């Protein structure tokens, strides 16, 4: 369950989602005005009105809490609380302020699991223009995969695409956003999960299994997801 927050952040970074991510914010500290424990997480409202969400830990009204690795999300709906937050910070570490003013939580790294939620580190490149990437012979396009997703469900497909974004090692997989200049937003980008790693900006032949209506919880639903993807250089 606790790894679902990582998935949520991947969704917010990379594909259709009802929330809008902002830039990573600076570390902060606040006095707890309200704390809600739900679904393995704690939702904390500080006296200044700021909300944060972190992996569950004991917290009470009046506690001084320090947090870091924060990513803001707007209009976030929590199913377990059945409420929408206008703005909330998902944080990679949080804990009581100690006597020396430091938080006991470790600084997150790309490889760290442990107590804190890991914010996926990603890089992005410009999307391809229409016609920039030649369709794969006997393959599909992003637009065709979305259009024919019902018929393609659980089938293995291949396509030429450009690697737009990568979020590494989330629940043991790399989450890779692909575009080929086809399709209409939001159906102009395809998420692939893979054990493989590719370079952002590279043009690749992608092969994977089509999954449809993949519900990750917390209101995040992938219309189409390409699972167990493999990559090879495309011939342009």
Give me some keywords for this one:
single chain, 236 residues, mainly beta, OB fold (Dihydrolipoamide Acetyltransferase, E2P), 5-stranded mixed beta barrel, 14 strands
Oligomer designation: single chain
CATH level 1 class label of the largest domain: Mainly Beta
In angstroms, what separates the terminal alpha carbons?
Answer: 42 Å
Q: What is the CATH third-level topology name of the largest domain?
A: OB fold (Dihydrolipoamide Acetyltransferase, E2P)
Q: Write down the secondary-structure element order.
A: HEEEEEEEEEHHEEEEE
CATH architecture level-2 label of the largest domain? Beta Barrel
Question: What is the average per-residue confidence, as pLDDT, rounded to a whole number?
Answer: 77
What is the number of helices?
3
Strand content: over 45%
Strand order of the largest sheet: 1-6-7-4-3-2-5-8
According to DSSP, the number of beta strands is: 14
Number of domains: 2
Helix content: under 10%
Summing up helix and strand content along with how strands pair, one would put the structural category as mainly beta
Overall radius of gyration:
20 Å
Shape: elongated
Low-confidence stretches: 6-10, 12-25, 100-123
Largest β-sheet summary: 8 strands, mixed
